[in-house]
Design goal:
Elements (H helix, E strand, L loop, with lengths): L6 H13 L27 E10 L2 E15 L5 E11 L11 E5 L8 H5 L5 E3 L14 E3 L9 E5 L8 E2 L11 H18 L7 E6 L1 H15 L6 E5 L9 H6 L2 H10 L10 H21 L6 H15 L3 H6 L6 H7 L6 E3 L7 E3 L16 H21 L13 H7 L4 E2 L5 E2 L5 H10 L4 E7 L7 H9 L11 E6 L9 H19 L4
Parallel strand pairs: 4-7, 4-9, 9-10, 10-15, 15-16
Antiparallel strand pairs: 1-2, 2-3, 3-7, 3-8, 5-6, 11-12, 13-14
Helix pairs in contact: 3-4, 4-13, 6-7, 7-8
Length: about 525
């Protein structure tokens, strides 16, 4: 769906006037036309710079937006890829210390990074109706009250094969599509950006979402070994440990199932407090439930019955159903079963969303990234608004197709092999070990992890499990903090949650920057 001409500008003018912080209107310069004929990536690095302003925490901020590309070179100096980015920077007064710079990216593998950019973390925001579906255009875009631009310059990066990032020449996509390959390309991009923009003296942060947390956890170790230390790492909807084991995969889902049943009022004695309820369920999941799964066929029938009854009280499915599944409930099965009486299926990325039971997840071409009511509820608003924003407000035009989600192509070709520090090569990467190694080499490195209770794609308890198994020394454990929100995978979709995240992020930046010499 495409925005009608003038719709976005009208929405920007209206909403920002109400906020008292109008976006600066100007005609942006034309983007260089290196791809104008073929629509293919070239080794030419290009950038379009425009000026804007916003208001955050009661202060007016004048900033520059740069939309452009940087070229990824091989060890031999051959151009291999062109990576697209959007950077927001604020000029510092003469003599002031350098501003922090944060490198941000979404996940997939196969997702562009416009979700974080205009989801509220960047200076402008595409407004959605989460946890309800947003619907078709016209859409509203406004200055984001949850942006962290007042704390740090922001650089949003698209992985090769997503957004406008592409391989160059005859370089195959698989040159970039793998755990190690992906970290390498992002390390080269960040090093190139820091060098071109003279940011070596700036405090540095990584902000990854979903698979982007896997990338960030491994990337910080790689970059620090190359002489670039970081002040903080932000992990949203994290996946850092792929080595939990099959039974653990079921255990970490139980609290999210319980939160979903709580939200949809499918519990006989619904607790008043979600937070207290989650604490109780986590204890059950890591204790009696995990022990029962570990017994396999050797479990005593009485113990199996007792665990099934308790599990039923927590996640809202019948005892007989749980027994028939040997206490193990697959994610897609739970999504269909919980609201079966209403002929509905829950969202995967945000289980507060619902759709008719015969939704796309039942088809033979199921893609969890797109065939999901939570994704469908916001994807058009984000993609349509972002495409118009890039062209109209940032002045970046390209004949290439903007790839918002390219999961089917990229995930299918992804090489998951990864060697963590001091470990063997694994096909299910455990980058929690990389993160721990980075913290040992840089004891001032701080981690802020954030998750949504209703995220079934990257369950919050799985993130907790991964961080709890970093095997850190006691003095490093306080460097890791975890925040939970009543939201889904893209927690920033919910306006109330975005503002809570803003408070937690502000505190994180303030704390990490207070350690500067």
């Amino acid at each position: 769906m495409r925005l009608k001409a003038g719709t976005l500008c009208a929405a920007l003018t209206l909403t920002t006037m109400l906020a008292g912080t109008p976006v600066q209107a100007q005609k942006p310069a034309e983007a260089p036309a290196a791809e104008a004929v073929t629509g293919r990536a070239t080794a030419e690095e290009k950038a379009v710079v425009t000026s804007h302003r916003t208001e955050l925490n009661g202060k007016t901020i004048n900033y520059k937006a740069t939309a452009g590309t940087l070229t990824i070179l091989s060890h031999e100096g051959d151009p291999k890829g062109s990576m697209f980015y959007v950077a927001y920077t604020v000029d510092q007064p003469k003599g002031a210390p350098p501003r922090p710079v944060t490198f941000l990216f979404n996940g997939g593998p196969g997702s562009a990074s416009h979700w974080l950019n205009i989801g509220g973390v960047g200076p402008v925001q595409a407004v959605t109706r989460a946890p309800e579906a947003t619907g078709p255009a016209p859409y509203v875009m406004r200055n984001s009250p949850g942006s962290i631009l007042d704390k740090s310059d922001l650089v949003f990066i698209d992985a090769v094969g997503t957004g406008y990032s592409r391989p160059i020449g005859d370089t195959p996509g698989t040159y970039f599509w793998g755990t190690e390959q992906d970290m390498d390309s992002f390390a080269r991009f960040i090093t190139r950006y820091v060098t071109v923009n003279e940011r070596w003296g700036s405090p540095k942060y990584l902000f990854g979402e979903s698979y982007g947390t896997t990338r960030a956890a491994g990337l910080v170790y790689r970059l620090q070994n190359q002489g670039m230390q970081f002040n903080g790492i932000i992990l949203l909807s994290l996946v850092v440990n792929g080595d939990g084991g099959e039974d653990n995969d079921f255990a970490v889902l139980v609290p999210t199932y319980a939160a979903t049943a709580w939200y949809h009022n499918r519990l006989q004695n619904r607790p008043a407090s979600l937070e207290a309820f989650m604490k109780e369920v986590r204890e059950f999941a890591r204790g009696p439930y995990t022990m029962a799964l570990g017994r396999g066929h050797g479990i005593d029938p009485a113990e199996k019955q007792a665990v099934a009854e308790q599990l039923s009280k927590y996640i809202g499915l019948p005892v007989d159903y749980l027994l028939s599944r040997n206490l193990r409930v697959e994610l897609e099965s739970y999504r269909r079963e919980l609201l079966r009486d209403d002929a509905k299926i829950t969202g995967r990325f945000d289980s507060r969303f619902t759709a008719p039971h015969a939704y796309g997840a039942m088809s033979g071409t199921f893609d969890p990234a797109t065939d999901d009511p939570a994704t469908a509820g916001v994807s058009s608003a984000y993609l349509s608004t972002y495409r118009d924003y890039l062209s109209r407000d940032l002045g970046y035009k390209s004949p290439m197709h903007f790839r918002s989600l390219n999961n089917m192509e990229i995930s299918g070709a992804w090489d998951y092999k990864h060697r963590a520090p001091g470990n063997r090569v694994r096909t299910s990467p455990n980058v929690a070990l990389d993160l721990a190694a980075a913290m040992r080499s840089n004891p001032q490195l701080k981690i802020l992890a954030m998750s949504g209770y209703y995220d079934m794609s990257t369950p919050f308890f799985s993130g907790e499990y991964g961080l709890d198994h970093m095997l850190l020394e006691p003095q490093l454990i306080p460097n890791v903090s975890y925040k939970l929100y009543e939201s889904g995978h893209m927690a920033f979709n919910d306006q109330r949650v975005l503002l809570k995240m803003k408070g937690d992020l502000d505190a994180f930046y303030d704390h990490t920057l207070s350690q500067r010499p």
